[in-house]
Amino acid sequence: MKTSIIIANRNDLEMLSVTVRSSIEELVMMPDADIIICDNSDQEIYNLLDTMIPSLYCKRGKVKIIRQDFPCLFTAREAAIRESNAEYIICLDSHMLSGHNTFLDLVNFMDKNIDNPKIGFAHAPICWIHQHECHSKHDRDLTESELGPWGVMREAEQKITWKGIPWICRRDWFLNELKGYGSLSRYHISWGGGDMHIGTKAWLLGYENWAVPCRPCVHIGPFPKTKMDSIKKHSGYQYRLYSDSGNGPHTFGFMVACYVLGGEEMMKRNAPFLKERFGLNVEECWNQAIEYGADEREWLLSNQKISYENYLNLWKNKQ
């Protein structure tokens, strides 16, 4: 198998079916590809999945669903990746529309750079369903905040800081060199910090993240805060269904990721942001974040090619 589309799902039904259907359409030109879903929905919702995914695709091996009994986004993604036997993995959320030829463009980029051992993640741009595509983003801007407000969409292939979904990488590299989500997966950490964690860790280990100019994938949510309550009331749609999953409070993963990547200094710098943006009780979970991240931080310090501070200065100076 050349490529696997990886989707973690928790309690999405209609949106998951939209994502899978959109992905299937884009795989028409990629016969050597499949879709692997790791589902950790509540049992009554899991029992309905077969009504949302066309069974013939499952019978033919184009779509595969595996079950995880506990809700954790990071372990779900890793379980799906381990289930794959593909050379490349492309990771999506369970509420996305695939851009036209986006998967193909990502694979072509990786094939073209097959002899470049420094390629880590390559990113397609992302936009949001209620916005025009001119608002698509390729990266995170670290000049003012290291947790990264959104940057811009790149018009040429170039190195970038980090970004979330959608991304492509080599499956074996993700599992064996990057060690995946590390502490976030090992301790079943609640939502938050995963994209920053793996994207920054790649740079510290001597790899690179790249922007691939192509059609964006479209994220269904979050919607403007002024409209979200009304949308939920009238449609029942709830965004970010992983927010109450895993160990620790919502966004606790950011704290663990900060410690792994930059130690307590990084935690201190970003504590005000986590309090103000997410309402996280930083003091209450400080020691727990250090405990969960200790082993991976020790491993990273022993294997990193550049320090976190040098990485941060590099991007601030480039901007």
CATH architecture: Alpha-Beta Complex
- Number of DSSP helical runs: 12
Element order: H for helix, E for strand: EHEHHEHEEHEEEEHHHEEHHHH
Tell me the β content: 15-25%
- Unreliable segments (pLDDT under 50, ≥5 consecutive)? none
Biggest sheet character:
8 strands, mixed
Question: Which geometry do the CA atoms define?
Answer: globular
Would you report the number of β strands?
11
CATH superfamily: Spore Coat Polysaccharide Biosynthesis Protein SpsA, Chain A
Distance between the termini: 39 Å
Radius of gyration, CA atoms, in whole angstroms: 19 Å
Mean pLDDT across all amino acids = 93
Number of domains: 1
Report the CATH C-level class. Alpha Beta
Alpha-beta classification = alpha/beta
Strand order in the largest sheet: 3-2-1-4-9-6-10-8
- Approximate helicity band: 40-55%
CATH topology heading: Spore Coat Polysaccharide Biosynthesis Protein SpsA, Chain A
